[in-house]
Sequence to fold (231 residues):
Amino acid sequence: MGDSWHDVLEPEFKKPYFVQLKKFLLGECTAHKVFPKIDDIYSWSRLCPLDQVKVVILGQDPYHDDNQAHGLSFSVLPPCRPPPSLKNIYKQLATDIPGFKIPQTGDLSPIAKQGVLWLNTSLTVQAHKAGSHAKKGWETFTAQVIRAVLKREIEGTSGVVLMAWGLPAQKTFKAIGINESKHLLLQSAHPSPLSANRGFLGNGHFKKANEWLAKKYGKEAEIDWAVISAK
Fold:
């Protein structure tokens, strides 16, 4: 875990729920294949330090097929092709961001390095078994991750954009409680093919995020979403 996050989240590691979670994960890793690999579970924390977070995008659990999950929600490393939800994210980026050309790869790390926290609600999953690590303690921990962002009091950088795609993400943010006079909460359907046409495509979230960041912090605070654009 990156130092900036470890310093703030350290009290969680000793709480009963997290101790139980570690025991559960030890058993899972002994008996099954678990994604992402151990070194990548907290990769989001190293790519996007706490004091640099500008945007939080909340997914559910990691991809559960081989060679996909690497610790960022919706992201996959080469040679994996972008999964269906990420393809729809790319479609919306192409609509919102001038000059964005849809890439053939799915690594969102260059965007994470600009202050976009691609966070999943559960940080692990058993191979080929979606939702298998839900309600084991990760939800409590990742809610604390989000609270850590909301509680920052760094001069000029306290307000952030929160993107809630789908009902689970919306319920998470509602339970945490978002001060919408300080933060921008953007909500829509999930980018999954099952729901993308019911409100995700056309939501304008990437454009709205940059407009809000520019208004609040200046043009230089905008996210260069096109950094992953096809050359």
In short: Helices lie at 3-9, 16-31, 43-47, 84-96, 109-112, 138-150, 167-176, 205-217. The first helix runs from residue 3 to 9. Residues 85 and 192 are 5 Å apart (CA to CA).
